[in-house]
Amino acid sequence: MKPTKFVSYLRVSTAKQGRSGLGLEAQRAAIDAYALPRHLAELKTFTEIESGKSNARPELAKALHLCKVTGATLVIAKLDRLSRNAAFLLTLRDSGVKFIAADMPDANELTVGIMALVAEQERMAISRRTREALQAAKARGQRLGNPNGAAALRRAGKGNAAGVKAVVASADVHARDLEPVIQSLRDEGIVSLGGIAAALTERGMRTPRGGQWHKASVRNLLARLAA
């Protein structure tokens, strides 16, 4: 039996994306492109502003509940965009709700189950690669933290050009040491400044001055890597 009514579920990773509409417009367009030609009636749209790594999906839970009580079909824009989040896939598979992904309209429970297994294996592989990258950096004698960064600046006389240059060079080296970690986080879907800051702090990484990470320090780190 073909669906006649549906509930939309859209997701973006950051509040900034949610406010700007970045990503949401493309998802909305994909869902409309699927639903309008089929004359489906939309009951409601749920928008999640959530990291792809997070297992907490309150808006998804609301969308699934509405589908259950109304018999509607859940329509999402891109299953492949969420395919590395095992928790999302398993929640979708086990919900008992009919769903359609605009980019993979023929996907079913078996497809989603296989993708969830692949997602979990990839998550474990990323975690292993992160550990191996850190171990390799340590084996090369590279320091993954610089608790004396502030002291070095003081010793430089706070204005001595050569000393400041040395501190900047040390920060550049520190940034390069963290580059594989940043890449691993991006592979996990952690791309926002706040998300990266939280992940680095959780993993025991320190800023060049030995402090905890914040959005501003992550922004500076990414700028150094880009330069």
Q: Radius of gyration, rounded?
A: 22 Å
Helix content: 55-70%
CATH superfamily of the largest domain: Resolvase, N-terminal catalytic domain
Q: Could you give the order of strands across the largest sheet?
A: 2-1-3-4
Poorly predicted residue ranges:
15-22
Gap between N and C termini, in Å? 56 Å
The CATH topology assignment of the largest domain is: Rossmann fold
Q: What's the count of strands?
A: 4
| Biggest sheet architecture | 4 strands, parallel
Please, how many helices? 9
**Order of helix and strand elements from N to C terminus:** EHHEHEHEHHHHH
CATH domain class of the largest domain: Alpha Beta
Overall mean pLDDT score?
76
Morphology = elongated
Report the β-strand fraction as a percent range.
5-15%
Q: What is the domain tally?
A: 2
Looking at the overall shape, the CATH architecture of the largest domain is 3-Layer(aba) Sandwich
Structural class: alpha/beta
